[in-house]
Design brief:
mainly alpha, Cytochrome Bc1 Complex, Chain D, domain 2, 5 helices, 0% strand
Length: 109
């Protein structure tokens, strides 16, 4: 009995090149995702968005109180080597807590 060995499909290089040219590049549509405009938003855009998209900030917003944002920014600086100074980190945390921080408990009047 003869064994059958599967061979990989081989397309001519010209066909692959034509296919590559014809297909549009894959893109994530993040046009609807924007940072809330407030003091610090330009700094967040300049420093944070060089490594990740805005949706990462918005995705973490419901679970991050100020201490969580401080820990996250510190992790980005120390572990991920984000180019953020201590002064910038304070502004970024203030912005993230103010615009995206977990809702604060409302005291009874």
């Amino acid at each position: 009995m003869k064994s059958v060995v599967a061979r990989p499909l081989r397309l001519p290089a010209a066909a692959l090149l034509a296919l590559w040219i014809a297909l549009p590049p894959a893109q994530a549509d993040e046009t609807a995702l924007q940072l809330a405009l407030a003091p610090g938003s330009e700094l967040v855009a300049a420093r944070c968005v060089i490594c990740h998209s805005v949706d990462y900030i918005q995705m973490n917003a419901p679970i991050q109180a100020r201490a969580g944002w401080e820990a996250t920014v510190n992790k980005m600086i120390k572990v991920m080597q984000a180019p953020i100074t201590a002064e910038e980190a304070a502004i970024i945390v203030q912005y993230l807590d103010g615009e995206y921080g977990a809702p604060k408990a409302v005291a009874n009047p």
